[in-house]
Design goal:
There is one protein chain. By secondary structure, the chain is α/β, with parallel strands linked by helices. It has two domains: 139 residues, Rossmann fold; 153 residues, Glycogen Phosphorylase B (Rossmann fold), CATH 3.40.50. Helices cover 36% and strands 17% of the residues. The strands form two sheets. Strands 3-2-1-4-5-6 form a six-stranded parallel sheet, sandwiched between helices. Helix 10 links the parallel strand 11 and strand 12. Helix 6 packs across helix 7 and helix 6 crosses helix 12. The longest helix has 18 residues. The chain starts with a strand and ends with a helix.
Length: 320
Amino acid sequence: MKVLIIKLGALGDVINTFPLAINIKQELYAQIHWLVAPLSFPIVKEHGSVDRAIVFDRQTLGRSLKNVIKQIRQTEYDIVLDLQRLFKSGLFAMAARGKRRIGFDKKRCKEMSWLFPFERIDPCDPDAHMLTQYLEFAKYLDIGHEQIVWNIPWQGQSFPGLGKDNYIVLNIGATKPANRWDSHSFARLADMIDSKTDCKIVMTGGPEDQEPAQLIKTRVCCKIIDLCGRTSLKELVQVVDQAQCVISCDTGPMHLAIALQTEVIALFGPSDPGRTGPFRGVVIQNKALCSPCNQKKCKEPVCMDNIKPEHVMEKLLQVL
């Protein structure tokens, strides 16, 4: 059996889809191809349940589109799964040579993608955790035993320079600006960690987080190992895997930490932790009257500002 998974989304979305891919691989003995965006391509390509990763890069739209269409038409798929729920992903599903095309029910589709003539899984709670929603496809395919494992590549490896040191990861970035915690709060938390534990402090984030990282370092009295914008996806896995705890806003590395069985303290404001939060772990959310609003940007992020470093430190000591 050959299966094409269309999941182009961000790192967290891809990680929450791995349990579905693993179940399909093991229970249906399937050969799995996966259409994915460049950011998550390395981890999908190296995953043990994925036989072929196909990358779609919208930055080089014309060339990439032509290449993707060519690749997904080389194979006749028994099943094509559109997990993205967008008009774009629906077009890819239609372009693939598939005997069956399966997508979400109408209520959970976006951009009128329900118009595509797919099989539709049964309607279910749209506020359920996304990992659980993806596993509904396994149920639809009559996979009886649904195990929740991630099998992340590169797990068990240490990041050079950190080794087996005790350290806490502060993941300061977030794709959506409204999900970010302010630099001053991260700096205060770092000093508390330094004074109340024997753990080193490691700061992670993307290249876009290097400026906030510099601001944090100017405000702290302690030493911070700054890895913002300095790690590949493989190296990020190594850093997160060996950490004592990861403190993060709602973003991909938070989900990565969950998949690696690392302790997590998740800081939530505008988004719903029941749907996009950590599948397990500690959630800190001091709701404002307007949350969860699920906005990408906010001029006055009261919900994130309401999260106090003292409360985060209290939870961290409990976790440790």
